[in-house]
Design a protein that fits this description.
The protein is α/β, with parallel strands linked by helices. The protein has three domains: about 250 residues, Alpha-Beta Complex (2-enoyl-CoA Hydratase, Chain A, domain 1); about 190 residues, NAD(P)-binding Rossmann-like Domain (Rossmann fold, 3-Layer(aba) Sandwich), CATH 3.40.50; about 140 residues, N-(1-d-carboxylethyl)-l-norvaline Dehydrogenase, domain 2. The protein is about 45% helix and about 10% strand. The strands form three sheets. Strands 12-11-10-13-14-15-16-17 form an eight-stranded mixed sheet, with helices on both faces. Strands 1-2-3-4-6-9 form a six-stranded mixed sheet. It is globular and about 85 Å long. It starts with a strand and ends with a helix. The structure holds (S)-3-Hydroxyhexanoyl-CoA (3H9). (S)-3-Hydroxyhexanoyl-CoA binds next to strand 5 and helix 3. Pathway: Lipid metabolism; fatty acid beta-oxidation. One of its GO terms (molecular function) is isomerase activity.
């Protein structure tokens, strides 16, 4: 099938792109566009060209698989042909108009979009910048401050926002094609127009802010520099500089890493989508437990459009859960993630399990304790219809043991949500030894419904993410014993690109849960296993983290400060373990953290707990703050 078709009717050339799944600008499509543009140039009767796309979206960008190995014809040359056409080209947009797709739309002479269209230049999320004039054309259409936000942030904007800023000329009110045909075209070529409102931009301040925010990612800074070129150089020179930057970045390590994550995220959970069993209907979902996790899961379901029956142990706890969910929805509404608060009307709370009987899926999110969860599952087994899927939200517990408390363990699986559950994208789907196809298909459908990235994990202590985190956290404590300090380890991790170091994270989430888990395991720990007592000593001293005002750091001043008492405890524990303290460089710290992550990752793969190295990277990047532009620990292992 040809990716481009051309029909002429009453002096109008209708150019239709059809290149599933997302009309990406691969080589055959670019060649098709070039040939069509040349043909149209030779047709004296054509007065206008309407460019549109078949399928669910306008062009969603360059073909990411071709990045780094460009093939002729090059997109900038094809777009020059279009922009230089003597007859106007009108872009009729729908779906997601992204990257090279938006550059194509901007090379046309006017743009009309269907309601609901989203437009953006997401190149920075792939470690590159627009490479076909995007940074030069965009600020000639929209004010420079909007161009900076779009190109350096990579987030798409709505059709309404695009219209308000000047990126499109109209939102269609009815038939997109017919209205596109009637669009007038502007007189002056876009590249002859001046850049809009660049005078007020403080480039230095913009760069400082961006440098802090991007934590080592180079593309956003290059994108800003390209926009500055646009403001300061003639359009053609700025285009040439943009192309140089694009070509250099498209073969960079960061871009390779980001492309790896892009495809790894899309492959994650594919096995769940391929299951033939029918998933449970998600219109009504039961949630047990309305604490932080349960309320977050309920909020995620409500935002996605489900009705939720939330069960707590008594009426008072149910009321508190209702308030918690309402607060989460209100916060989402305030952040523009939820259109209105009517979602709350789909929530019912109570304490009677019988209310769950018509829910095809129930997610239990009670206290992380096997006995408590076992009781919940026994009660669920009594009231739920035989085909209902029963999920436990757990971060550590043995899903197989829990499944065996029910008559049909094939309908039980683990769903490890991350807090806040209505925000975080990762969902570890824990496939137990007995979990059946319907339960797994339901997990896949749920992930799509909640717009989360599902990664399948086998049963083990901590599944994929917590198991790797525990391994390197343990080794970080060994490094403390050997000579490092918490603030050094955190600095090394932040320098590498983590938003927070492991000690700042522990202080934020509290040290007590891990302490309880260590105490529970103490009896079965082999006597000859290396064990650092530092964290236990901190807990015994009441240093339970931020909530106690002290943990690995002191928070008396409101910000995290290194604390001599912690350094003292560490020094004492070094002496007790018979270690001679030595200096660690940041690079040595990161080498050690990465090698422990990779070793644990390899063990997890060998045990079949993770299906692929890519899945491990997705877990670490989407759930554990591993810098996306580094691709994940397994990617770095090569
Ligand atoms: C660029 O444009 C550079 C230019 O400035 C310069 C050029 C010179 N290429 O996400 P989905 C595949 S850089 C190749 O599951 P959704 C994807 O892998 C590009 N393949 O669907 C998947 O395949 P599979 C800038 C692509 O509905 C299938 O399509 N553009 C591309 O949830 C469905 O994808 C972007 O960064 C692509 N560009 O979301 C946009 N896009 O079925 C990247 C998708 O085998 N794409 N695929 O797993 C997206 O953000 C989302 O895919 C989109 C659809 C929102 C479009």
């Amino acid at each position: 099938m040809q990716p481009v078709s051309l029909t002429i009717s009453e002096g109008i050339a209708h150019l239709r792109i059809d290149n599933p799944p997302v009309n990406a600008l691969n080589q055959p499509l670019r060649a098709g566009l070039r040939d069509a543009a040349l043909r149209i140039a030779g047709m004296p009767d054509v007065q206008k060209v309407v460019l549109s796309c078949a399928g669910r979206t306008f062009v969603a960008g360059a073909d990411i698989r071709e990045l780094g190995a460009p093939l002729e014809p090059y997109l900038p040359d094809v777009l020059d042909l279009i922009a230089g056409s003597s007859v106007p080209w009108i872009a009729a947009l729908h779906g997601t108009v992204l990257g090279g797709g938006l550059e194509l739309a901007m090379a046309c002479h006017a743009r009309i979009a269907a309601p609901g269209t989203r437009l953006g230049l997401p190149e920075v999320s792939l470690g590159i910048i627009p490479g076909s004039g995007g940074t030069v054309r965009l600020p000639r259409l929209v004010p420079m401050s909007d161009a900076i936000a779009m190109v350096t942030g990579g987030k798409p904007v709505s059709a309404e926002a695009a219209l308000a800023m000047g990126l499109i000329d109209r939102i269609a009110s009815g038939d997109l094609q017919a209205e596109a045909q009637d669009m007038p075209a502007p007189a002056a070529p876009l590249l002859d127009r001046p850049v809009r409102e660049a005078g007020a931009i403080d480039w230095h301040a913009q760069e400082q802010t961006l440098r802090r925010k991007s934590r080592g990612a180079e593309a956003p800074l290059e994108a800003l520099a390209a926009l500055r070129d646009s403001a300061e150089l003639p359009a053609r020179d700025a285009m040439a500089r943009e192309r140089e930057r694009f070509l250099r970045l498209s073969v960079s390590d960061q871009s390779r890493a980001l492309r790896h994550v892009f495809f790894a995220e899309r492959d994650a959970g594919r096995s769940l989508r391929d299951i033939e069993a029918a998933p449970a209907d998600l219109a009504r979902v039961g949630v047990i437990g309305g604490g932080t996790m349960g309320a977050g899961i309920a909020a995620a379901l409500l935002i996605a459009g489900s009705s939720v029956r939330l069960i707590e142990r008594d009426a008072q706890a149910a009321d508190m859960a209702q308030t918690r969910v309402a607060d989460l929805l209100a916060a989402s509404h305030k952040r523009g993630l939820l259109r209105d608060l009517s979602a709350l009307e789909r929530l019912t709370t109570g304490s009677d399990y019988a209310a769950l009987a018509d829910c095809p899926l129930v997610i239990e999110a009670v206290f992380e304790d096997m006995e408590v969860k076992r009781q919940v599952f026994t009660r669920l087994d009594a009231v739920m219809p035989a085909d209902a899927v029963l999920a436990t939200n757990t971060s550590y517990l043995d899903v197989d043991t829990l499944a065996l408390t029910t008559r049909d363990p094939s309908r039980v699986l683990g769903l490890h949500f991350f807090s806040p559950a209505h925000v975080m994208k990762l969902l570890e789907v824990v496939r137990g030894a007995h979990t059946g196809p319907r339960a797994l298909a339901t997990a896949g459908a749920l992930a799509r419904h909640l717009r989360k990235t599902a990664v399948v994990a086998g049963v083990c202590d901590g599944f994929i993410g917590n198991r790797i985190m525990n391994a390197y956290r343990t080794d970080c404590e060994f490094m403390l014993e050997e000579g490092a300090l918490p603030e050094q380890i955190d600095r090394a991790m932040e320098g590498f690109g983590f938003a927070m170091g492991i000690y700042a994270v522990q202080d934020m989430s509290g040290l007590d849960i891990a302490w309880a888990a260590r105490k529970a395991r103490a009896a079965t720990r082999p006597a000859d296993e290396r064990y650092a007592h530092i964290a236990d000593r901190l807990c015994e001293a009441g240093r339970l983290g931020r909530k106690a005002g002290r943990g690995w750091y002191d928070y008396a001043t409101g910000t995290a400060q290194p604390d001599p008492q912690v350094a003292q405890i560490i020094a004492e524990e070094s002496a007790r373990a018979g270690r001679t303290r030595r200096e660690f460089s940041d690079a040595q710290i990161m080498d050690r953290i990465l090698s422990v992550m990779q070793a644990e990752g390899r063990t997890i793969l060998a045990e079949g707990v993770a299906d692929s190295a890519e899945d491990i990277d997705v877990v670490m990047v989407t759930g554990y703050g591993f810098p996306r532009h580094k691709g994940g620990p397994m990617f770095l292992a090569g």
